[in-house]
Structure of AAA family ATPase:
Amino acid sequence: MSEPRVRRAEIAIEQEHVDRVYRRLAELRAQAEAMRTKGYEIGHGAQREAVFEQASMLFERDMMVFHANQTLQTLDAEYEGLVFGRLDQTIGEKIYVGRLGIRDAEFDNLVTDWRAPAAAAFYQATAEEPMDVVRRRVIRCSGQNVLDVDDDVLIPDAVPDDMQVVGEGALMAALGRSRGEKMRDIVATIQREQDEVIRAPWRGVTEITGGPGTGKTAVALHRAAYLLYRYRRQLGGAGVFVLGPSGVFTSYISRVLPSMGETNVELRALGEVLDGVVATRQDPGPLAAIKGSLRMRKVLTRAMRDTPPDVPAELRIVYRGEVLRLQGKELEKVRRKVHGHGGPPNRSRVRAAETLLEALADKAEENARADGGSVDRTELIMELGERIDFHRFLVVWWPVLYPGEILRWLGDPARLARAGKGVLKRDEVDLLAASFADREADWTVADVALLDELRVLTGPPPKRRRRAQQVELDAAPAARTEQGPHRPEHYDEYSHIVVDESQDLSPMQWRMIGRRGKYASWTVVGDPVQSSWPDPAEAAQARDQAFGLRSQRRRYTLRTNYRNSAEIFDLAAGVVAGYAGADELPKAVRTTGIEPDVRIVERTGVEVGTQAAAKELMDAVEGTVGVICAMDRVTEVQGWLQGRADERLKVVGSLDAKGLEYDAVVLVEPTELITESTTGRRVLYVALTRATQQLTVVASDREWL
Ligand SMILES: Nc1ncnc2c1ncn2[C@@H]1O[C@H](COP(=O)(O)OP(=O)(O)OP(=O)(O)O)[C@@H](O)[C@H]1O
């Protein structure tokens, strides 16, 4: 038979199996529906039964409905091609691999879940170590239709006469396809070095490093799905937390886990980690560097302990006809004494009351001594402690503290200088104070870690006022994945934390995430060469503290760049040549024959040049086109491209481009990317490595080259 006919025949064979799988899926769905309906009927019956029986029936009902709902949720996930692989083994057995395990009515396997041990050979078998696999087949489907098959023969000598072999290079075909707005899963083409990371043990800390496009993000997400499948008992209950650099990024990766049937994962951007705050604004590099440094711990602690603005400067109370007064300095002494005990202020009001009463008793004794008399301290303390005017004073003098409020106080340079004495330089005080002074401005991403630090320092406000705190911080709730995943009641209960783009976390951000992972195991993804954080040693120290004493640490380095064409990556690698060791740069596996297009134009010609390049690339590729520019140019560049509104075209700032990818990229004024950040060349390197197929650079100078 000719190659196309063989291919068609093989597709038809696989279509038959896929049809069988979907028929079975429909049966399982119907069974789960029936179980749910039956469960609800039990509930209705219960109303007529005795209380005791009622309780057990209701329990049974809840269990049935719960299980039925879980099954339906799994079956209804948006699987893009439920079956994607097949292994033919030396013993003549065949195994179909898919996103979900499915058995037929006789309990025979129709599809093996990709995460099950039986499917491991699909990813791990090689010609050198074939693991009894004769032929590995990737099956490409669209919905329920088989579009294509692609084979890999691992033991040529064992191929039986009637076995057909079709095509070559499922990976290359997958990499060459155009990209949509959302990242796709890679279950069908996970490579062996990636599979090893995905299936690494769950305990301790697993670090994944590697250059751009090596699949770190994809691997970390598949690892989350794998861990939840294999260790659901240990990890499923308390929740898995995935942290990404920005909302644009979390939206970009949001479909990957649901496409594998995993909805029990909480996905958040760095600016959304704290409930009640959604921050998207980025501070300029030097300001973010101050806000992120560990020095801020001291500054915040002092700020919190300073006298709040607008508290009364005098306590005046009449006791048995005599006026007792505590004034400025005396009151401050009392405040310092209360803070000296080290408890969170929102939990210290009782201590504040006691210390104030002691000071009043001292004062009364002092007055009495001057008059040659005496006072009964215990009586005074008891009596004043019950007086309403004393309590009125107490609540305003020792107010409930809210993190947002304290940060805003630091908009006053004098107050900030007090808090930052010996810690912050003069120009740093000015920079910081200006950023907190603007009461109208939203919080920035770097502020969120400061708010979280203050949340812990101040302690929780009294319960009846917690709602007020939410409103004070920011009314909008944090974004969740669409399905509303399981969320533990307390922050420190997550069982597994995935940190993506970890090289950019500031020390203060590491502290914030560390609080959420006190008892968790970790998967940490990063590429030091892409780091935009200026002090890696300080960040490493904070990171190690977040991991705590976890003894098991393993590190994997991925070395193949699957995203960029070799032509594009060559240009990017040149930009960081002086910063990265040769072994830190990955190898790009795909060539397209299309060199990146560098256009040097007049400064006044950048706008027209960008418009022209965007148009050309929109015509040249089927998928997405990203226009990347310096952060403070985004609105301007959006304006340039307004008439061209198209779903496929996105304008994105350099820092927000982290982790994203496009079929084609227009990079605007690369030198501006270098100068806007403290680690400029690395930011440019990130921007240059976002395109899969074509890259055009529009620049008014050559300095960046
Ligand atoms: N085994 C694979 N099969 C198919 N596609 C893959 C494979 N591994 C990676 N890719 C693709 O390569 C691209 C880059 O992957 P990913 O974004 O995970 O890389 P990364 O290492 O996180 O990159 P960066 O550090 O630049 O953000 C994605 O489109 C991903 O789907």
Summary: Residues 3-46 form the longest helix (44 residues). Confidence is low (pLDDT under 50) at residues 465-485. The chain has five domains: 3-177, 198-275+490-560, 285-306+402-458, 315-397, 566-699. The CA atoms of residues 661 and 690 lie 5 Å apart.
